[in-house]
């Protein structure tokens, strides 16, 4: 169970950072995708929620 949670959060963080790098925000006005740390944390949180569900 713990491995599943860690893998889910890790993959979510990678996906969040990938979203920042590949799509991102051209203007810098986007609150989530304009910052790589916030984007990675949101991705990790989403991956964690998916792993728990």
Report on this model:
The chain contains two helices and no strands. With 53 residues, it is mainly alpha-helical. It has one domain (2-52). α1 (2-22) runs antiparallel to α2.
How do the helices and strands line up, and which of them pair or pack?
Blueprint: H1 2-22, H2 36-52
Keywords:
single chain, mainly alpha, 72% helix, 53 residues, 0% strand
Brief account:
With 53 residues, the chain is mostly helical.
Strand content: under 5%
Question: Structural class of the helix and strand makeup?
Answer: mainly alpha
Give the count of structural domains: 1
**What percent of the residues sit in helical stretches (DSSP H or I)?**
over 70%
Could you state the order of secondary-structure elements as H and E?
Answer: HH
Query: Helical stretch count?
Result: 2
- Overall mean pLDDT stands at 93
Q: Total number of β-strand segments?
A: 0
Q: What does the overall shape look like?
A: elongated
Major sheet characteristics: none
Determine the N-to-C terminus distance.
12 Å
Uncertain segments of ≥5 residues (pLDDT<50)?
none
Q: Cα-atom Rg, whole angstroms?
A: 12 Å
């Amino acid at each position: 169970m713990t491995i599943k949670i860690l893998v889910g959060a890790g993959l979510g963080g990678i996906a969040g950072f990938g979203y920042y790098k590949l799509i991102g925000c051209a203007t810098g006005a986007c609150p989530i995708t304009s910052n790589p740390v916030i984007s990675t944390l949101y991705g990790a949180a989403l991956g964690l929620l998916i792993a728990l569900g």
